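Obj.: predict assembly geometry.
Materials: sequence records (below).
Method: joint structure prediction, all chains together.
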Amino acid sequence: MDPQIRQFRGNARGAINNRNLQSALAKLSSGFPARRSQAAARLPEFEALRDEARAIKDHVLEHLDIYLERYEAEVMSAGGQVHWCADADAARAKITEICKAAGAKTVTKSKSMIGEEIAINGHLESKDITPVETDLGEYIIQLRDEPPSHIIAPAVHLTMDQVADTFMARHEGLDPTRALDEPRKLLEEARAQLRDKFIGADVGLTGANMLIAETGSNVLVTNEGNADLTYSLPKVHIVIASLEKIVPTLEDAATILRVLARSATGQEMSVYTTFCTGPRREADTDGPEEYHVVLLDNGRSKLIGTEFQAMLRCIRCGACLNHCPVYQTVGGHAYGWVYSGPMGAVLVPGLIGLEEASNLPNASTLCGKCESVCPMHIPLPRMLRSWRQKQFETNRSGSFARVALRVWAALARRPGLYRLAVGLGIAGLGAWGRRRGRFAWLPMAGGWTGGRDFPAPNGDTFIAQWHQGARGDASGAWLRRQGP
Amino acid sequence: MERETGSQDGPRVGVFATCLVDLMRPAVGFATVRLLERAGCRVSVPAAQTCCGQPAYNSGDNESATAIACQVINMFMSFDYVVVPSGSCAGTLKKHYPEMFANDPIWEPRAEDLSKKTYELTEFLVDVVKFKNVSANWCNSVTYHDSCSGLRELGIKNQPRALLENVSGLIISEGAEAEACCGFGGLFCVKYGDISNEIVGRKVADIQETDADMVLGGDLGCLMNIAGKLKRQGSSVEVRHVAEILADMHDHAAIADPDSVEDV
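Observations (raw structure tokens):
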């Protein structure tokens, strides 16, 4: 998917006017946060676990080289291979090569954000290999040829009616008068469609929620069990994962699992949690013959040692999206690329460059809700501010907002001049608006007055009145100056 | 000589009024002073104050932000306490000035020193001077909007409510989403006006669910945003800064309402 972040404002406007999307977002905004907060409240040690989880990832990021090498050695000793890929091109080429070597026609996939990041589906199709998404949400958006709008709930932007319409249009050979009016019926139909694909697939492609250094295992977390059919039925299992997914031990993985589902969906644990270690061994009754890990960097190692390093603690739970007032208003597609919400606004400039992604760090109220719910305590607002700072330093353009801000800041540094300028401005504005108490329109403030009135000032500044000896009283007498 | 009021043997408090209060709503400044006087403080309002620098800091203009911060630090360093009728500006002084000067041998200790003695108004009244003697009346129901910075940077939640409980006649009707962002976000509200407007739309819907006659809060930015939306919708719900009610100074028009004194 090519980034469309430059169109953020237009995308946002479209999202606001999209009724289906707004009704889906209203559901998400009331559902996920409430469930997370109940799950956190049920576990007395939840806050302590968050601290532990953060410490685990901080430790890994300080010693990433050591753990990655250990991980590779363990994967190899279990009979698998690790393919180090610096960027999306390298990862796509490696995956295609493995698929071609296996003579693959069909590749089943369980949900993977890395798959989205490297746009693997389109690439496989161009090589005459058919990718089949098996996560229900991913399956729905694949049928609709849409990108995911949420890192854990890819089709959360759709209503049930829209999904039913999609199934009616895309599932051939079924009774066109069948009723698809409840979630269970939709699920059953999708399951029936997918059954043969699972069995016929040549390669199974999964993501990884974590990679464990001491065992060389990858962890898969799903609620549908689709990942298990994806990796265990085909001859070849390919794991695609970015390098910061590493954790040192099984014990560490268990700690992170305890905060992951609680933060994401409010579940204690996801329904399925699977640890895959290498290909099938001789005594195993099933499992893949080959096990490959495509380990992706794609700009992440550049973030190490910078003020953005803590972003690599992210475990992709989606809590920051679910709680973000901006995400709740515009949904994931408006952000214009794979990752959305606060984590996307911090990560995407790091991965594809600030120039391309310049809208994202600015489209935030810095309300801090994201950081307060992040299981890994990632200081997202601070990092958004850091991106803004970089932007300010590199962008020398004379946009109106920038010039206005500089003039304001210059005045704020010269109290005498400031007093004179704001005194005149406020007196004028006060005289104009005091009778009505507000303005329905103000020059150059259309962003505000488009949907809101702007309160009128009282006409004289507090500092000026105070130093002329005024005192407040209940009748509003401070407006009439008194002697000291 | 700066004007000084209140109790001469009380702690020396410098009021940082904030640019919005200074420009848009002097009533909040006067109410702040009155509350501090009643709490037994010796109160000054340094004349050279302008802004805390937050708009520059949040826009990435650290050069301007740090220059303004130095000015604020110099102006307020001699006080025992600095009190700010805004969670967001207090948060800038308390949390962000030390960040701005991290590893600066001269300014970091000064920023830390200022940080330690800076408080948001209700936080100062409840936690520092243990002010209980609120003599105010308001026979109506109010709902409280918890501003983001005050709530999440400074942990202000119970302090304004504890004070409001002592206002005779006042009933607090909590909104289900009292802690949700109002969508103001400083320059965000004009840069991304469409999104901001939707967010404040949800905020006022939550406020109207409470059936309260008035919204109170501790940050003028949020309150102007909320009032602007309520008034555009034709709502009669009044919006005021919490200090106005606590100081019993509410005969003047509420935020964005017509000035009745002028009309008479």
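Conclusions so far: Chain A has a mean pLDDT of 94.
To do: check interface contacts against the pulldown list.
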